[in-house]
Amino acid sequence: MNAEIRLTVDDREITVAAGTTILEAARQAGIQIPSLCYHPNLKPTASCGVCVVEIAGMPGLKRSCCTPAENGMRVTTNSKALRALRKTLVELVLSNHATECPTCAANGRCELQDLANAMGVDFNRFQLIVEDKPIDESSPSVHRDPKKCIACGRCVTVCSDIQSVWAIDMVNRGFGVNVNTFFQEGLGHSACVNCGQCTVFCPTGALRERSETDAVWDAILDPGKIVVVQEAPSIRVTLAEEFGMEMGTVTVGKMYAALKKIGFDYVFDTNFTADLTIMEEGTELIERVKSGGALPLITSCSPGWIKFMETYFPEFASRTSTCKSPQQMFGTMVKTYFAREKGLDPAKIVSVSIMPCTAKKFEARRPEMRDSGFPDVDHVLTTREFVRMIKEARIDFKNLPEEKADDLMGAYTGAATIFGATGGVMEAAIRSAYFLLAGKNLDNLDVKAVRGLEGIKEATLVIPAEGLGELNVKVAVAHGLGNARSLLDKVRQQIQETGKSEYAFIEIMACPGGCVGGGGQPYGSVIADRARRGEGLYREDSGMAKRQSHENPEVQRIYETFLQRPGSDVCHRLLHTCYFERSLLDGGCVKEATHKHSGHHG
């Protein structure tokens, strides 16, 4: 247990654990020291200087975000000199920042904007010296505007320390310091995996998603188009906080109603294909367990993780599930199954997805994702884009009467809902895999060992498998690519030393917290917010009559009338995919195919 220290902040004596910074100590006591570059979930960069404080007996001012609190320390956070200095620092930042607030995607959620207002900056005493730097639109997922960058370093920290991707870094020194990619070639020609965590942590909107809202509006307003929409599980627990409701509130009925008001012709749910994914992935796992196939089997529904695997761990392609993600499965079924059932021309169907993830934009554009003869998904909107569309349509979301999704591809189980939280895919798979192996349901469907925000979670399950006796199945869950790297390094070493791994099944999500913390979620979220969103998903799951994917009646129907059975030839043709080795040095360009499922993609 950490020793405690006592210090005085603004004449208030407070007690904190040793090693706590002054900024953290003050905030624990309810004293808010202004800051800009600081983020509670990242190591401090101390780049902006806004959080400076006075410490009795020490010369000069100290940056509170990186200065440890000490026993007996007397700290002043608010004085005339400090107020003047902070205001000057903010004005200096603004002098080299493109102040395009009304047209900025971060308007109203910009930390620099909030700080300038709080500091009373009503005009800038310094000459505007914004250098005309070109916008980086090389990525299909992330839009980077260097003119809005304040060199706080948050994006660099999350990319390197949390995600272990190192796609961006600080270049140059002094006044010329800026964030850029290797050889300044752009995000689309870097090791970037499109996870978008940089956009969530960016305080100013210098990094945001590549918007597709105009294209979606054009499709909706085109009478010759049939526009079909799906929404990922985590969207239903994120919208509440954007419209004045309690964080973690499930707003699924209001979400459907808003989409219908916006003008989508058919409103379905990605949860439907989350259940379908479990049937395919669970079957794939069982086949490998029974036949002695390559284990562990690793989940494939996170496109940021998939590109990370293809770039850094291509030898794991043969151990990664060949299942498409729920987004892509849905898109394929829209252009085939839905079109057939409704007698529609698939060429007239526009498939739109609403995702918490910027990497889904990249995934939708992968050239192999068109097994229907058309792109599986035509447009991907992030949560942030969807919120902007709701506001643009002048919809009173909070007071909107609830509606239901359309039939055919709208039903889902609790297992699908928890896909949005780290460990959720694993728990959903366990529920159905247990049933498929044991011929009966789990006694307790709540597999709590794989829940929570610990970076890597493990569990061992005892499954009485028909014809195989009792199986001890060890599983692992990792969220955040840095944790994934640590887990895969361990698995790699086990395989090198013994020829096999201790794990049978692994879930990997690119984003910390899982999809509730995706790169397309609201700006400024912290880990605690992601936890509350996840709790909302588990609440919906616990209250549902059907909580296992194999119980979904619409999934049962699609197998009976179209897909035949899990793992059938038609399933492998439409619902499964292949992976490629990508070069780290030439912008992720495909070098060669490393894993193709037998019979798929020729």
Q: Provide the CATH topology of the largest domain.
A: Rossmann fold
Derived from helix and strand composition plus strand pairing, the structural class reads alpha/beta
In terms of per-residue confidence, which ranges show pLDDT below 50 for 5 or more consecutive residues? 595-602
Q: Biggest β-sheet, characterized?
A: 5 strands, mixed
Helix content: 25-40%
- The tally of structural domains comes to 3
In DSSP terms (H or I, runs of 4 or more residues), the helix count works out at: 19
Silhouette: globular
Mean of residue pLDDT values? 93
Question: Could you give the distance between the termini?
Answer: 59 Å
Determine and state the CATH class of the largest domain.
Alpha Beta
Number of strands: 19
Beta-strand content estimate:
15-25%
Strands of the biggest beta sheet: in what spatial order? 2-1-5-3-4
CATH architectural type of the largest domain: 3-Layer(aba) Sandwich
The gyration radius over C-alpha positions equals 25 Å
Can you walk me through this structure?
The structure is a single chain. With 602 residues, this protein is an alpha/beta fold. It folds into three domains: 4-78, Roll (Ubiquitin-like (UB roll)); 97-209, 2-Layer Sandwich (Alpha-Beta Plaits), CATH 3.30.70; 215-596, Rossmann fold (3-Layer(aba) Sandwich). 34% of the residues lie in helices and 16% in strands. The longest helix is centred in the middle third of the chain and has 22 residues, at 270-291. Mean pLDDT is 93; it is low at 595-602.
